[in-house]
Design goal:
This protein is of the alpha+beta class. The protein has one domain. Helix content is 35%, strand content 17%. The protein has six helices and six strands. The longest helix is centred in the last third of the chain and has 12 residues. It is globular.
Length: 150
């Protein structure tokens, strides 16, 4: 989120405690080994695999792993995009904007509409985005476009 918003308006970037990474499931063991070698502590969870930077760290401070092409929770309306829907930026890889928007609209947790409104506010997402989305996600975005202040 921060990278996309900062490309338009650095003052609109929000800091978040957690870091989410998306990997292909068949790469998980290699990712797990790399994170553990870097000092992270693996903490499996029901919905999201997590890595803590110390054993007593809180879950909200964790690196969360989600899997490409899979739903995080069974009730969600869409699966995550594939890792190929990404681009290089500043020495690392990030999700393409369309893929990020779909993830945020799919999860639609309390913080996701806020993040999406940030993208709307800086002009990266708007009515033109609606035609790129499945109907259920387009309806969620339309709701945000209709209520810009929440």
């Amino acid at each position: 989120m921060a990278l996309w918003v900062s490309r338009v308006d650095e003052s609109a970037v929000r800091a978040t405690q957690e870091v989410d990474i998306m990997v292909a499931r068949d790469s998980f063991e290699a990712v797990k080994a790399a994170l553990e070698n870097a000092g992270f502590v693996y903490r499996p969870a029901a919905a999201i695999e997590s890595f803590l930077d110390r054993p007593d760290a809180r879950a909200r401070d964790a690196v969360h792993v989600v899997f490409a092409g899979e739903k995080v929770r069974p009730h969600e309306p869409a699966a995550n995009p594939e890792v190929t829907e990404s681009e290089r930026a500043d020495g690392y890889t990030v999700l393409a904007l369309g893929a990020l928007v779909r993830i945020k609209l799919t999860a639609f947790r309390d913080k996701d509409p806020t993040h999406l409104r940030d993208l709307i506010e800086v002009g990266l997402v708007g009515p033109q985005t609606l035609v790129t989305l499945p109907p259920v996600l387009a309806a969620r975005l339309q709701q945000l476009l209709d209520t810009p202040d929440g």
